[in-house]
Amino acid sequence: MSTIAMGHAGTEAAPAEKKGLWSWITTVDHKRIGILYGVTAFIFFLLGGLEALLIRWQLGAPDKTFLSPEAYNQLFTMHGTTMIFLGVMPLSAMFFNYFIPLQIGARDVAFPRLNAYSYWVFLFGGLVLNASFLFNAAPDMGWFAYANLTSKQFSPGLNVDFWIIGLQILGIASLAAAVNFFVTILNLRAPGMKMMRMPMFVWMSLITQVLLLLAFPIITVALVLLMLDRNFGTHFFVPSGGGDPVLWQHLFWLFGHPEVYILILPAFGVVSEILPVFSRKPLFGYAAMVFSGCFIAFLGFGVWSHHMFSTGLGPMADTVFSLGTMLIAIPTGVKIFNWIGTVWGGSIQYKTPMYFALGFVAMFIIGGLSGVMHASPPADLQQTDSYFIVAHFHYVLFGGSIFALTAGAYYWFPKMTGRMLSEGLGKVHFWLMFIGFNLTFAPMHILGLNGMPRRVYTYSAGMGFEFWNAIETAGSLILGFSFLVFIVNILKSLKSGEVATADPWHGATLEWSIPSPPQEWNFAVEPTVDGRDPLWELRRANGGTLPEPARVSGKGIHLPSPSYWPIVTAFGTAMTLVGFLMHVTLWVILAGLAITMIGIFSWAFEPADH
Fold first, then answer.
1. Which one of 5, 510, 558, 560 has the largest count of C-beta atoms within 10 Å of its C-beta?
2. What helix, strand, coil percent values describe the chain, rounded to 5?
3. CB–CB of 307/324 below 8 Å?
4. Which residues have C-beta within 8 Å of that of residue 542, sequence separation ≥ 6?
5. Rounded to two decimals, what is the model's pTM?
6. What was the pLDDT predicted at 324?
7. Phi, then psi, of 386 in degrees rounded to 5
8. At 118, is the secondary structure helix, strand, or coil?
């Protein structure tokens, strides 16, 4: 039987919570950093959504001049870059930060200051990337940055340089966070929580950290080589100097395909937490779900060239990558059937998180089926660079990741804030988002098969593209409005929402055993677990009910002290790389390095109880 202290013994008045802007700047509390990640990423996500709406408005009718070709290229490049690196990834990081320690029974992450550093580096990277708009130099070569489009000959301005430096800064943030969570999961689990007892969200998060640690160095190398080509006269990707443009594609997709699973595996974990709770039965096939996630990650590194079937790799390479791509559908199918098996025969509770989780399963199946089509090189050659591809990856990344992360937001919002989101507004949000999403992206399959190419800023009347583009634009407006409903729901709930109990959903994992929102130290007494669903086991042992946990004093509990050195070090890191953006301004680079070194040494020698 699991033993979890519910917080009654030694109950005292809790210390006053630290407030004010300075407390947020210096915080090293994983929960506050999770909130910072979530708020910042959601703002960037809304910015990326605005860019998408402008794109769709331009394409809503033929021969429109709402956007110039240059503005269109900048918007679609920044939309893709923003959604991937500033939206979906850090929204997942919000849940990593907030809930991994809670689900494994830990008081904090392994490296609290490194955790704060990763957030501030992420923020500065996002600001640098979007500062390009202020200089009329937003990246304009596509989020994939294919050579030779990125050479000085074809992109002489700062547009590509902003993209290179922004992504290098963001890569540092991702690697710092990945090291932190990898060590946290392996070393800070509660007594009795063996690897095969970890919540599925923690498992998928662990696999994601491995992918981050292996994939991001590859894109970092590619970005450094591109920076050298542009600023130091090397020719890694320039054919006239003996370079190979296809080398960029290999390096980019060696990162880019694992990146797809970096985006989707956390979503798998979120949905695997929600479906059992609202089906009132344990996750079906736990071990199969774990090993299928590992298999997906392993195969994800071996199928990158299915993005390159049109580059002429030859029949042997095409065959290998085609078979590998088909093979990866097997562990993905295992997960889908296990989710269906979890729901099948359950006592389903139709709450808003369940709506979004079921919507995720349905939309991801559609995206997965169209993905299997692209595993065949002849089919891929017909579909590549058409709107069919745009439909496919939006069904995977929006219909997959965003639906699942939104489900997670509704599921864990009570734990994070102590308030319940409105069920009525939540269901309005779901149906608007579901209808708007399908109206926006389903017709893209038809347009793609009818020959509409990607990355064109307009099209001529009479080509047969008008009707479906008009439907897509209307759908995008509905989709955008759905997030306004979500924002209203959040603000309304924060102000006057129903007060949440510690366990409003009757959850199975450790985070539901402590007050909502959690106190700074998470657990007054370290929990001990003896099974995969510790709270359900405890509830069964107590006749189906559990007492409401009390808020207790943290006296005698050691916690890391606040520090401003992570933000100082992050600023120095960003400043160093921005020096290269300014065409190698030496004094900026040296000043950034000096600030970084001062920050690192001050951070290292700062007293633990300062």
1. 510
2. 70, 0, 30
3. no
4. none
5. 0.96
6. 94
7. -115, 170
8. helix
Distances (CA, A) of 274 to 2, 219, 401, 403: 21, 33, 14, 12
Which superfamily does 29-546 belong to?
Cytochrome c oxidase-like, subunit I domain (1.20.210.10)
List all residues 6 or more positions away from 192 whose beta carbon is below 8 Å from its beta carbon.
2, 528, 529, 530
Q: What would the pLDDT profile of 429-483 be if each residue is shown by its tens digit? A: 999 999 999 999 999 999 999 999 999 999 999 999 999 999 999 999 999 999 9
State both tokens at 529. 């677990």
Q: State how far the alpha carbon of 581 is from the alpha carbons of 169, 473, 475, in Å.
A: 12, 36, 38
- The per-residue pLDDT for 13 is 39
End-to-end CA distance of the chain: 40
How far is the C-alpha of 112 from the C-alpha of 520, rounded, in Å? 13
**What is the mean pLDDT of the segment spanning 196-218?**
97
Query: Which two three-digit tokens encode residue 150?
Result: 């990125």
Helices (H) and strands (E) in the chain, counts: 20, 0
pLDDT tens digits, 71-104: 999 999 999 999 999 999 999 999 999 999 999 9
pLDDT tens string 141-194:
999 999 989 999 899 999 999 999 999 999 999 999 999 999 999 999 999 999
Structure-token pair, residue 418: 């102590």
d(CA 321, CA 131): 39
Percent of all residues in the chain with a pLDDT value above 70, rounded to a whole number:
96
| 271 pLDDT more than 60 | yes
Q: Distance between CA 119 and CA 477 in Å, rounded?
A: 31
Angle at Cα 374 formed by Cα 373 and Cα 380, nearest 5°?
A: 115
Confidence band for 554, pLDDT divided at 50, 70 and 90 = confident
CB 185 within 8 A of CB 206: yes
Reduced 3-state DSSP string for 197-261: HCCHHHHHHHHHHHHHHHHHHHHHHHHHHHHHHHHCCCCCCCHHHCCCHHHHHHHHHHHHHHHHH
The burial class, CB within 10 Å (0-12 / 13-18 / 19+), for 277 is buried
Residue linked to tokens 């990650």: 297
